[in-house]
Structures are given as structure tokens and as C-alpha cells.
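User: Assemble these into one structure.

Assistant: Restating your components, then the assembled model:
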Amino acid sequence: DGGITQSPKYLFRKEGQNVTLSCEQNLNHDAMYWYRQDPGQGLRLIYYSQIVNDFQKGDIAEGYSVSREKKESFPLTVTSAQKNPTAFYLCASSMTQGGNSPLHFGNGTRLTVT
Amino acid sequence: QKEVEQNSGPLSVPEGAIASLNCTYSDRGSQSFFWYRQYSGKSPELIMFIYSNGDKEDGRFTAQLNKASQYVSLLIRDSQPSDSATYLCAVNQVQGAQKLVFGQGTRLTINP
């Protein structure tokens, strides 16, 4: 079955440590995205990538970094520079067809930093 | 003014009734509109998308778009307790590089 796999489901880290969230898709989608969701709020775009080896900052990129070395993979690193990293992180993908194709989401990673 | 606005609710509807969820957006250039359903602790799942003015029906769901008034709505007919969730409105504001802007979501509760 095609889909998007995020791992791990839950992640706990100490303040000051970098942490990398995994996202893999087998939908053959060109575009991939990372969103952050805080309790009771909508989704905010962190980074997105349209093709391999290229990515753009979203609305809240500070304190995050990404790579896109393979079409299937788009890992997100939450660095120690991110002031408030505890959140629900969602990876998504879409076919790039004039910007009208819907997003498909992974199951999310819930990150807690103490 | 927020780019995409939804009433956060909670919206309470009796089982079997019609639930009406509304969303307004600020960018007149917006072209694509999506409704996602999100159960507590889960990721969003696509319910419907609409690109043209008017109504689009899919089973118990109807999406309505009015670009002149800059609003999009979702109607759920014959509401079921399983429809209880948060509904997110998303608007695509960038042609080519799809950048969805999400509303904060409306929490819907269907009362048996």
C-alpha cells in the first residue's frame, strides 16, 4: 500500500539536543512538506521541497533544517535553536500538478522536549 | 486579519441534522480549497476539495465555494457521532509550489 511513514510516533528529548524526524513516502510524489501543529491550532508550514536537492523555507523555518537527497525521503531536524520545539509534527506529500493536488499526510510525530 | 479564518467552535449538532462549517479567506487570488478532518491525536485526512464556484457533492458531504464573497463551506448531512472531529479548511495561495494555509479548525461534536 502506498503511503507516508513517519517515525518515531513519540519522541522525547532533553533541551539543547538536536533531533531528527524521519519521513518516507512511496507514493512517487514530487513535493514533500513539514508542518507543525500546536494544541488547538491549525497547521503551520516549516519547510517544503518540490524536487530532489531543493527545498524552501515555509512560514516558521527558524530552528529547523531539512534535506532532500532522495525523492522518497524528507527528514526534518529540530535544532537546539528552536525555542519551543514541543509540538505535533506532520509530514505530507503531493503530486505537483499546477499546485492543485491535495496533500497526503503521515501519521505524525509527537515531540516533547524537556 | 488572518489569511484563513474558521470559527473554532465547539459546534454541537444533534445526530441526523445538517452540520455547517464555514471558512473565509483573505487572498482573492486563491484557487484551490480543501477540507480536512482530524480526529483527536491523529493526522488530517482529506474530505473534499473544490476549485470552482458553486457546490460539489460527495456522499453526505457538500462543499460550497463563493469566490466573490471569499468563503468556502462544508455541509455534512445526516450527521453521525463518527463525524465528531476537528475540520480544517485549507487554501492554496501559490500556483505551482503548493503552499497551503490552514485555518485553526472548527471542533464539531455530534450528539446522539
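The mean pLDDT of chain B is 91.
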